[in-house]
Write a structure and sequence with these properties.
Number of strands: 20
Strand content: 25-35%
Radius of gyration: 16 Å
Number of helices: 3
Distance between the termini: 41 Å
Shape: globular
Oligomer: single chain
Order of helices and strands: EHHEEEEEEEEEEHEEEEEEEEE
CATH topology: UDP N-Acetylglucosamine Acyltransferase, domain 1
Strand order of the largest sheet: 3-6-9-14-17-19-20
Helix content: 10-25%
CATH class: Mainly Beta
Low-confidence stretches: none
CATH architecture: 3 Solenoid
Largest sheet: 7 strands, mixed
């Protein structure tokens, strides 16, 4: 799974790991507590905040940097690593999808899927309702407009918007 190869999500080890995440998420979403985030996620930077409700598949494949903020309703499908830098802001209902499915119907019928990592640099702002698809890297200081669907890598200092997300302009570095 972590190597980007086909895997069966019904594997007992994966089922147990998702059950663990659901249990921790249930407690966190009912009563937010940093210690629960630290138990759930792979790493949590100083002053990182995730507002409930929050959902993820496994949790331990997610690392968030210092001063990270995720507003309400975010979803991280972390079947591959999701790495988020320092000073990153996510609007409400932002979604990071490392998980995906094969295009071939026969392979999907067999219950196989795969995942590709997502990497988000420092000081990135992802607007509410934006979706980041598997395998995407977002460079430092980039801005993703609300409701955008990010299908390809985004350069540092770029502003993108739309479905699929396209460059709107480049930030002027001061």
């Amino acid at each position: 799974m972590l190597a980007g190869e086909l895997y069966d999500a019904r594997d007992p080890e994966l089922v147990a790991a998702r059950a663990r995440a659901r249990e921790l998420l249930g407690r966190f979403n009912a009563q937010p507590d940093r210690s629960l985030l630290e138990e759930l996620l792979g790493s949590v930077g100083l002053e990182a905040v995730i507002e409930p409700p929050f959902h993820c598949d496994y949790g331990f494949h997610i690392s968030v940097g210092e001063r990270f903020y995720a507003n309400v309703g975010c979803v991280f499908l972390d079947c591959a690593p999701i790495s988020i830098g320092d000073g990153v802001l996510l609007g409400p209902a932002a979604q990071l999808y490392a998980a995906t499915h094969p295009l071939d119907a026969e392979t999907r019928r067999r219950g196989l899927e795969y995942a590709l990592p997502i990497s988000i640099g420092d000081d990135v702002w992802i607007g509410g309702g934006a979706i980041v698809l598997p395998g995407v890297t977002i460079g430092d200081h980039a801005v993703v407009g609300a409701g955008s669907v990010v299908t390809k890598d985004i350069a540092a200092d770029a502003i993108v918007a739309g479905n699929p997300a396209r460059a709107v302009r480049h930030l002027e570095v001061t």
